[in-house]
Specification:
about 140 residues, alpha/beta
């Protein structure tokens, strides 16, 4: 299964956010093992660096980037994708960028803790628990 991993799931692992970290870690492990091909929108990496640097420190932020680059396929964010995201019906542009990334890459699903934020997504939306139940 080819899935886009929403930033909240990745950050749950990197920042060990409870109570979500255990399920998010299982999703991450499924990506590392190849049971799932996990994608991240390229713009998510800059967001992750900023959040981890502010929450922990610069070294942890670069470590998180390194591990993410080893684990996930990175979906390009370019003008075409941003224009497509701009015209999607959702209210949150960041979520729309992730939806557009999943559409352009032909992914099977988006894995998120916030399915309401993706309510109008034409791509299947799964929670981490939903994805784990399918594996």
């Amino acid at each position: 299964m080819n899935v886009l991993i929403d930033s909240n799931v990745v950050l749950d692992v990197v920042l060990k956010r409870q109570p979500w970290e255990p399920e998010a870690s299982q999703v991450w492990a499924a990506c590392e093992s190849g049971r799932v091909t996990g994608y991240l929108a390229a713009s998510m990496l800059t967001d992750m660096f900023y959040i981890v640097r502010r929450t922990v420190d610069r070294v942890a932020a670069f470590d998180a980037i390194d591990v993410a680059l080893q684990t996930f396929t990175i979906g390009a964010v370019d003008r075409t994708l941003l224009e497509r995201a701009r015209h999607l019906p959702g209210n949150d542009f960041e979520d729309n960028v992730q939806i557009a990334c999943a559409l352009i890459a032909g992914l099977d699903a988006i894995v998120t803790r916030d399915p309401k934020g993706f309510a109008e997504s034409p791509v299947l939306v799964l929670t981490p628990a939903d994805l784990l139940a399918r594996l």
